[in-house]
Automatic annotation (TrEMBL):
<feature type="domain" description="Enoyl reductase (ER)">
    <location>
        <begin position="14"/>
        <end position="325"/>
    </location>
</feature>
<dbReference type="InterPro" id="IPR013154">
    <property type="entry name" value="ADH-like_N"/>
</dbReference>
<keyword id="KW-0521">NADP</keyword>
<dbReference type="InterPro" id="IPR051603">
    <property type="entry name" value="Zinc-ADH_QOR/CCCR"/>
</dbReference>
<dbReference type="InterPro" id="IPR011032">
    <property type="entry name" value="GroES-like_sf"/>
</dbReference>
<dbReference type="InterPro" id="IPR020843">
    <property type="entry name" value="ER"/>
</dbReference>
<protein>
    <submittedName>
        <fullName>NADPH:quinone reductase</fullName>
    </submittedName>
</protein>
<dbReference type="Pfam" id="PF00107">
    <property type="entry name" value="ADH_zinc_N"/>
</dbReference>
<dbReference type="Pfam" id="PF08240">
    <property type="entry name" value="ADH_N"/>
</dbReference>
<dbReference type="InterPro" id="IPR036291">
    <property type="entry name" value="NAD(P)-bd_dom_sf"/>
</dbReference>
<dbReference type="InterPro" id="IPR013149">
    <property type="entry name" value="ADH-like_C"/>
</dbReference>
Length: 328
């Protein structure tokens, strides 16, 4: 099968190799998926760059956790009726070496749920990390109806879906955005208010917009950088669900202030979500996809031969939306 892989850590152009790899087989409890699209996420490029020093100890790695395609065959213990089913794949290259940057991937059947007919394969490649992370951040601590939810970076890959999921759950949503185009995007998908997180004092601006009611939960993209402003607008007993802290990698916490606010800090990563949380996220997301409720942003859909470019785009940033590669 055609695939991209890396045998050493480094930049995309220097480490990603294109060529033929053995076609996998569906073992017990697995399905073999003919991949149509593969999704590229920040965690994928960080692994390739060397974020986990032991990743290559057992050999080459075919990257990417997310993708979508059609089940070609099934292993023992999996119903034959699944053959021909349109599916999305998540968590493919977690705790193992072979992900979705290839024509085929064999994964546990549970990691290849049915993809609703209303969703394209491009959308399917955006479910695993962007949508499921958003769902966990919004709903990990219970229902949100009537609550004030703040989504930082609302036009980003995760924030874009978090706004929609929070509104679907009945929340009042404030988002942050850094420019007029992103502000318009947040409003379009349901945010009630938007503040500019590049302006000083934006935490106080949030309070003004919601008439000093304060924020009950935060879906946060830059924990260390955003924390000082968040503390200005959070209610006592609030929760910050954060999935990244790139600008400030080792945040310093004002412990006493946070303790007296009775705050909860929840770190979110799809791989570590409880299985019941993954199942609930998939049920809710598929329900919304079935009803064509969710809006999507695939910023770049590249051909297979431009896999290197897809990694470079993620690293360069400067755009909003997901990056997907078509697989022949």
């Amino acid at each position: 099968m055609n695939a991209f892989w890396f045998e050493a850590f480094g930049d995309a152009a220097g480490s990603l190799i294109s060529g033929a790899q053995p076609k996998p087989k569906a073992e017990q409890g697995q399905v073999l998926v003919k991949i149509s699209t593969t999704g590229i996420n920040p965690s994928d490029v960080k692994k390739r760059a060397g974020a986990f020093s032991n990743l290559l100890d057992a050999g080459l790695v075919i990257p990417h956790s997310d993708g979508a395609g059609v089940i070609e065959s099934v292993g023992e213990g999996v119903e034959e009726s699944r053959v021909g089913e349109r599916v999305f794949v998540y968590q493919a290259q977690y705790g193992r070496r072979f992900g979705t940057a290839a024509e085929y991937v064999a994964v546990d059947s549970i990691r290849a749920p049915r993809l609703p007919d209303t969703a394209s394969f491009e959308v399917g490649a955006c479910i695993g990390i962007p949508m499921m992370t958003a769902h966990r951040c919004v709903f990990a601590d219970g229902g949100v109806r009537g609550k004030n939810i703040l989504v930082t970076g609302g036009a980003g890959r995760v924030g874009y879906y978090a706004i929609q999921l929070a509104k679907w759950g009945g929340a009042n949503v404030v988002a942050t955005a850094s420019n007029p185009a992103d502000k318009a995007t947040c409003l379009k998908v349901g945010a009630d208010f938007v503040v500019n997180h590049r302006e000083s004092g934006w935490g106080d601006a949030v309070l003004t917009l919601i008439e000093d009611e304060k924020i009950n939960r935060v879906v946060d993209v830059e924990f260390g950088a955003n924390l000082p402003e968040l503390l200005n607008c959070l209610a006592t007993g609030a929760t910050i669900a954060t999935y990244s802290s790139t600008q400030v990698r080792e945040p310093k916490l004002p412990f006493l202030q946070m303790m007296f606010m009775d705050l909860t800090i929840r770190m979110v990563i799809v791989y570590a979500m409880p299985e019941e949380a993954k199942a609930q996220a998939i049920d809710d997301i598929c329900h919304l996809l079935d009803s064509s409720t969710l809006q999507h942003r695939v910023a770049h859909c590249l051909p297979f031969e431009e896999m290197v470019r897809s990694h470079e785009l993620i690293e360069q940033g400067g755009f909003s939306g997901c990056v997907v590669v078509s697989v022949p």
